[in-house]
Specification:
About 10% of the residues lie in helices and about 55% in strands. The chain has one helix at about 25-45, and strands spanning about 50-65, 70-80, 85-100, 105-115, 120-135, 135-150, 155-170, 175-185, 195-210, 215-225, 235-245. The longest helix has 22 residues, at about 25-45.
């Protein structure tokens, strides 16, 4: 296992300059700060010691519009573990996405995880998305409910995921900055498998580029902290994250938009 001289921090700073007379922008700022405060709280509760590993995650996503308001997406992701020397997981995630308006969206889908020797997992899920923008900064907030079905564990384990995603165009270039923070909570305890309550924290930062009107890529770093059931053990994974997103229809401009990537 790779040993790193540092422990990633869960602190997230989100500051948006806003006009005090604009209630819409002020309301969005409050939502964003509440989410950031939650990430800080969870991050401060993470123990300083955990079993660390260097990994490589390679998700590829295809997005196909059916109508102006409806699209389907399919994501396949390979994860390598043990200092990028061994197969970790294969994740398949199809989804149907409905764009209620320019700000609100709803998605539902299915996630299958092949864990390479560990019990596999199947998760039907539903998600609300709220998006807004301030100049070139896009803020997207997602609330997801998953129904976890894990091999060898009877019944279903509901899990809630809260995610805040930021993206910012770099001038008039095809490059942009991207990042997110996400926390995951299991809603019950089966006595085996996932722990109840807070389970996972993820922090991500990347540089993206629109290669053309159909393809964009992101190269970044993802830190995942996960509580384990056995005693006080926990995992701290440092992942090189390379993502490719393919749009079957031409994108409208190069600025990041809520429909660019479904996380």
């Amino acid at each position: 296992m790779a040993k790193f001289p540092f422990q990633a921090s869960g602190r997230v700073l989100l500051h948006i300059r806003k006009h005090p007379r604009d209630p819409a922008i002020r309301e969005n700022g409050v939502r964003s700060k509440l989410t950031a405060a939650l990430l800080v709280f969870v991050g401060l509760s993470v123990p300083a010691t955990a079993e660390e590993d260097l990994q490589f995650w390679f998700p590829t996503q295809i997005i196909h519009p059916l109508t102006d308001d409806l699209s389907v997406s399919m994501q396949a992701e390979i994860r390598l573990k043990d200092d990028i020397s061994d197969f970790g997981e294969l994740v398949l995630k199809p989804a149907l996405n409905y764009h209620i308006d320019e700000q609100w969206g709803f998605s539902f889908g299915y996630k299958y995880i092949d864990k390479g020797g560990k019990p596999n997992e199947q998760d039907p899920w539903q998600e609300f998305i709220y998006s807004t923008a301030y100049k070139d900064l896009m803020v997207k907030q997602q609330v997801r409910l998953e129904q976890r079905l894990i091999d060898g564990i009877d019944g279903m384990i509901p899990r809630v995921r809260l995610l805040t995603h930021l993206a910012h165009q770099i001038g008039d270039s095809p490059y942009y900055l991207s990042g997110f923070g996400a926390v995951r909570f299991n809603m019950n305890d089966k006595g085996q498998g996932p722990v109840s309550g807070f389970e996972q924290l993820r922090l991500y930062a990347a540089v993206g580029r629109h290669l053309n009107e159909h393809v964009q890529v992101e190269l970044g770093y993802l830190w995942r902290y996960e509580r384990e059931r056995s005693g006080t053990s926990s995992l701290s994974d440092h992942a090189i994250h390379l993502q490719m997103v393919i749009h079957t229809d031409k994108k409208k401009g190069l600025k990041p938009a809520p429909r660019d990537v479904y996380r």
